[in-house]
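Much of the work behind modern protein science is quiet bookkeeping, done one molecule at a time. The protein below has been through that process, and both of its lines are reproduced in full.
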Amino acid sequence: MADIPKPDYKKIVKEAGIPTDAKAWRKVLQDEMEKAGSTINNDSRFSPFWRMIEQAVIVCTTWLINTLLVGYILPNMFLATSTGEWLKMMAWAVRIKPKPAFKARGKVVFQRAAAKGPALIIPKDTWVQTEPINGTIYRVRVTEDVTLPEDQQTISAPVEAEHAGAAYNLGGGYYHILPESVNGIGAVTNTDDWLDDAGADEESDDELRLRVRNQWSAVAKWHIDAAYRSLLMEKAGIQDDNIYFEHNAPRGPGTANAYILLDTGDPSPDMLTMLNKHIQDNGQRGHGDDLLIKALPKTDTDVRVTVWPEPELTDDERIKLKANIEQLIHCAFRENTDFDVTRTEPLSRFSFSMLGKELHANFTGIQSLDFENSDIITAMNVPRIRTLEVTIAST
């Protein structure tokens, strides 16, 4: 997520010469009464009359300054800090509506148990689920009856996530469990590019404000990054900072590429086809523009780490710790969203020392750990895991 300013409005108000605490307003009140020629003498802190005047004026004034002005009015005057209905009104002003949550949709591959056999039916409403990930099991449902032809080994079936949300956009191989067996089917899995429509959470205030900010740059309809960025953010639910442009005429004059990155998983060929058709064939591109939408290229990485657990952990706790470490590392490489960790990105350095620090912060059973990997320096690509080996040391 792009950096969003977090101004200290209380400090700004103070620097403007407006008192924000009771002591300062008490002095203002006393000064103003003296200027007005007040003859009140019983102004000690024990005076009921003066205490009543102070409370009537100072309490109300500090509430107006700190709660109303600093806490509500000023933040909601600016796009960077407005929230809720105020932010929605700013979005309305540039013809943007907050995006609702929606379900992930894609395809999983069913494999026949035998080498050959008769035609098989994968029934509608068949569930495919994951192992528990940080305590949560994710499920997708087959949306229509699919026939596996006679003697054919595999067939792709359309699926939809059980619930809306980006957490269901898992990487390849996560959906591989049939809670109820299907006659003649031996295995099921999702490929790396299984997603046709990425699932999304209800758009957060930060995500909405970035779209509104981009819209100000997109007022000239053609030829600029912001216009295409806005189209992709609206059509595919891709975040502002997950779209990267290549401008150096990769296919000749007037050409450019837009690389898209999902928070988890890879966009499917069907998703890329849909986006390219939307830009190129539906009147969404500038005269002479040739913009091609692509998935951000990936680089495969073998990750190896040795973990020394706390000696008091039981065998079951060590097994659970190993599984949790694997899932967190997969999260860092954009295969799930169940942990709050630093993720791989293009045009950056991925730090394994930072990953180790985040493993320590998330799991108390780690005494020490050691990655065999060096930091990954990325160009216009994103690192993905080819193999992951987590070794739990015995001593």
Notes: The CA atoms of residues 20 and 85 lie 27 Å apart. The chain has a mean pLDDT of 88.
